[in-house]
Design goal:
Layout (H helix, E strand, L loop, with lengths): L1 H10 L4 H18 L1 H14 L5 H20 L1 H6 L2 H7 E4 L2 H8 L4 E4 L6 H11 L2 E5 L5 H11 L5 E5 L4 H8 L6 E3 L11 E5 L2 E5 L2 H9 L2 E10 L2 E6 L11 H18 L23
Parallel strand pairs: 1-9, 2-5, 2-8, 3-4, 3-5
Antiparallel strand pairs: 6-7, 8-9
Helix pairs in contact: 2-4, 3-4, 11-12
């Protein structure tokens, strides 16, 4: 890992357009070689966009590979470039949706889906506001230590282990009314999940956004990080009204519906290489 970290440290010295050019080359190569992951992406697109032609799906997944490689190459910028450089790279829109609530002493959950700019967006976000973040330890100790250290680079991120209870998250949120940065849009298996439509397919979905919002009496503010050329945009959306309700399944479907709208805006920038439909309802055949 030391060699990988050294390469990332050197890459962060490059201009962003050159990192992008390198990612285009390596991403195109990864698309050609990573047959199984390419297959996963194409299946996801077929399920979510059945009217899209095969040629268009292939083009989009090739672009997605390039974005994902670029995300990996940009870790050096996130970890070691100056805070000023990150501020200049990321345009922030509508931060007042969060700061106004915090000024009133209200707690906030940031619904932050997995788009390819989510790491750079989070490091920019943490310069403006403290955050509560759930962390899953990595198998490689060196990588685990570096990611954990990176999360703490501004010394205002309260990290909670994924093995801890909801009480730990809420307790951390109460410290300085730090918003909880929540990324519940992946398949975490059948435990504690509901099968809710994601586009037109049942997807095992964690209903934690609704449940934590109710327990913490917190407002939900969606945030989307997107790549715009060689720069980034971090957009906060208005707090959801009438959320949560007493219908957890309807609340979870509302979360997925919002995400679908954002994906349609930038379809090549979502995490399509993840097996989003791996967990199936009883009796249904597997997709992958």
């Amino acid at each position: 890992m030391k060699i990988v970290f050294a390469l990332l440290w050197l890459l962060r010295l490059l201009p962003m357009w050159l990192i992008g050019a390198l990612a285009w080359l390596l991403g195109s190569l990864a698309y050609a070689l990573a047959r199984e992951r390419r297959r996963v992406g194409l299946i996801n697109l077929r399920l979510c966009f059945p009217d899209m032609s095969l040629a268009e799906r292939k083009r989009l997944i090739r672009r997605n590979f390039q974005h994902m490689i670029r995300l990996a190459l940009e870790y050096g910028v996130c970890w070691w470039s100056s805070a000023e450089r990150i501020r200049k790279l990321v345009t922030v829109k509508n931060l007042q949706y969060v700061t106004d609530l915090r000024a009133k002493g209200e707690d906030v959950i940031l619904f932050y889906p997995h788009f390819v700019a989510f790491e750079m967006g989070a490091y920019r976000m943490n310069q403006d506001i403290p955050l509560v973040s759930v962390y899953s330890h990595q198998k490689n100790r060196e990588l685990d230590a570096q990611i954990y250290k990176g999360r703490q680079r501004y010394d205002n991120c309260y990290i909670v282990s994924r093995q801890e209870s909801l009480r730990s998250i809420i307790k951390a949120m109460r410290q300085d009314h730090a918003p909880f940065l929540y990324l519940p849009d992946q398949d975490f298996g059948p435990r504690d999940s509901l099968f809710v439509k994601f586009f037109d397919t049942d997807a095992a979905t964690i209903p934690g956004l609704s449940r934590i919002a109710k327990l913490a009496k917190a407002h939900v503010v969606p945030v989307i990080a997107r790549r715009v050329g060689n720069r980034f945009e971090l957009e906060y959306y208005p707090p959801w009204e009438n959320y949560p309700t007493d219908d957890v399944e309807a609340d979870t479907r509302r979360m997925n519906a919002f995400l679908e709208e954002r994906i349609r805006e930038i379809p090549d920038q979502y995490f399509w290489l993840h097996k989003r439909f791996k967990t199936r309802p009883a009796g249904q055949s597997r997709f992958y």
